[in-house]
Amino acid sequence: MTQNKSEVDKNLQNVVKDLEKQTVTSHQAQQVQQQTNDHRHQDALNHDKAPHSYVLTDKE
Questions:
Q1: SS3 of 55, please?
Q2: Rounded to whole angstroms, how far apart are CA atoms 46 and 40?
């Protein structure tokens, strides 16, 4: 294990950094979730389209 030269707890530094971050409001979280749902819905619509006109075959 490497020694921490600064004698400061790295885990504690990371916790402080996390606490300094701006919190997400419920409105922002809902917008992110809605965007995810919209992408899933669009993906599902794209997969519902007719298959491609080519056929894969084994070539020997």
A1: coil
A2: 10
Q: Would you say how long the chain is, in residues?
A: 60
Q: What is the pLDDT of residue 36?
A: 94
- What residue has token string 């819905």? 41
Residues 38-55 as b or e (16 or more Cβ within 10 Å = b): eeeeeeeeeeeeeeeeee
Across residues 20-49, what is the average pLDDT?
A: 90
Tokens of 9: 């707890």
Backbone CA torsion sign across 46, 48, 50, 53: positive
Q: Is the pTM of this model over 0.70?
A: no
Structure tokens at 43: 């993906």
Scan for tokens 């409001």, then name that residue: 25
